[in-house]
Amino acid sequence: MATAVGREKVFLLRPTVVLLLLRKSGRSSGKSDIFYHCRNERQPDMRKIDIPPVWLLGFAVLAWLQARHMPMRLSLDSGFTDLLSGFLIGGGVILIALAITEFRRHRTTIIPHETPTSLVQSGIFKRSRNPIYVGDVLILAGLILRFDAVLSLVLVPVFVWILERRFILPEEDRLRRTFRADFARYERQTRRWI
Fold first, then answer.
1. Confidence at 43, pLDDT banded by 50, 70, 90
2. Domain locations in the chain as residue ranges
3. Phi, psi of 79 (to 5 degrees)
4. Radius of gyration of the chain measured on its C-alpha atoms
């Protein structure tokens, strides 16, 4: 694919690789022209992979690796721990399913980096402003117990911090700008987590 840009031709070899062939017009000063044209090209959108399930998977893999390769002779393995991990994972999955159902019912986006078309305040969202994130935290805690990765329990507050900084605060800013008084009222009535 080639497109003309002034006197230069831009050849796209891949979406992220741009090769500029400058005509021998004497106008080209070399490297600075290439940077000028490259900075206007579309960069890959990292928001597509910067989503909570990817972070949850990463933290779960870290916990699994810790359990397999660095158990440090610490263990919580018992029937009660297995039962608790099952309740945590199951509860997390149920919370996420209930939240997704509400999003679908209101026909709004579930993608964290997009602006929603409606403010969901019904169903599980009456109890928590972020039931999906609560579900993610429950699933991570349950997986850590299931893997018997005792040292990885410190990952739970780190995961909560990342969810809050990378997703919840920016989402709340978008909701505040979009729904103004409705979100202010909802924010006063319903807690962020539980």
1. low
2. 2-44, 47-189
3. -65, -35
4. 24
Global pTM? 0.76
Span 153-184, pLDDT tens digits: 999 999 999 999 999 999 999 999 999 999 99
Q: Helix, strand, coil % (nearest 5) of the chain?
A: 60, 10, 30
Q: Which amino acid is at 175?
A: L
Please report the beta strands in the chain, taking only residues with DSSP state E, as ranges in sequence order.
Answer: 2-5, 8-14, 17-21
Classify residue 125 by burial, with Cβ atoms within 10 Å: 0-12, 13-18, 19+.
buried
Instruction: Spell 8-26 as b/e; 16+ CB within 10 A means b.
Output: bebeeeeeeebebebeeee
Residue pLDDT, tens place only, 101-122: 999 999 999 999 999 999 999 9
